[in-house]
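Troubleshooting: if your tokenizer reports a length mismatch, compare your output against this known-good record of 292 residues.
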Amino acid sequence: MKKSAFLLPAVVVAVVAAVSSVFIVDEREKVLVLQFGQIVKVQEAPGLGFKIPLIQDVVRYDDRILSRELEPLEVTPSDDRRLVVDAFARYRITDVERFRQAVGDGGEAAAARRLDSILRAETREVLGSVTSNDILSTDRAGLMLRIRNGAIAEANALGLQVIDVRLKRTDLPPENLNATYERMKAEREREAADEIARGNEAALRVRATADRTVVELVSESQRQAEITRGEADAERNKIFAESFGADPEFFEFYRSMTAYGRALQGTNSSMVMSPDSEFFNYLKSDQGAAAE
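Known-good structure output:
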């Protein structure tokens, strides 16, 4: 009986010790074995692990990709137009020993707060070096990559790997919204006025070119017309001269008829001259001066 009384507690203690010396590592976590606060073992592979009961402790850390949303952050780009930025980061614990040394007993919550400070500082630095138009444009992937790359080194010191940083929302502060809208409106109106002025200037140049072309074409046409008219007059005079040489009497008759037609135009033509004037030679006789 006395042996059984001593044996049973010993067995219980042995079983409890054996059970407390075994721990299970899940595939979604990493485990540190601590002895008096010092790291004695790191176990990242899933399965069973062993420790010294009562002397060693097990600390578990999440091995999955974690997300961290930043509080809305006000930044001032290079053009002094303040913006409110919402961002989030995706990260994971890659070096549990360094992580434990960096954050101590604070664990993942302390690491998240320190990561917040790193990301906020990098966001202010990167977005402060560009204009608000660059931030509000669709080409923000480069800015997010710069923020992530800038945070990598400091995050590594915490045993963290920053996988991605995303800007969710970039808005104007409410108090600056109207002023910014008016400034943007004024800028667009100025650009429109510049475009109108350039268009008017181009129109004046085109109109001046067209007017000069018209003058040149009209002048050339008039010159050609005068040349053609002069050639026609010369040809006419040549024909008259040849006709006059061929039959002087007919030419004289033709000239007299032409003179009669011009002088007696209209219904009330009146002339005062001597009856024996040479002007009436062909009215007196169809032979003209030769009949006398």
